[in-house]
Amino acid sequence: MAKDDYFVIAYRVLKYLYACLKAGQPADLSMYSPDALGINNGYWVSVLEMLSGEGYITGLVFPAAVGGVRSVKLYDARITQKGIEFLQENGSVQRAAKFLQTVKDTVPGL
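^ that's the sequence the OP posted. Answer follows.
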């Protein structure tokens, strides 16, 4: 599994939004931006669109693309109950969590 694998990115976004929910704090976009996740903007928009479309997160709007450039507007992004269940029950997400723990243990600064 790679650091830019869909399930790794989805895990990181959902885990962060769940931590914000539990702490009663609003999500900080800089913590799950394309730069923070190490991915390009187009891929980031696609991942957020999929997570939103599946009902795992709310508070996102995807304006019509002008000239083929897709974007997302975030309005108080939050994880849903379905997103929490996905974090806890999806096998691919669990493998992503284990992968990230392994990477964190072996690569300083991650």
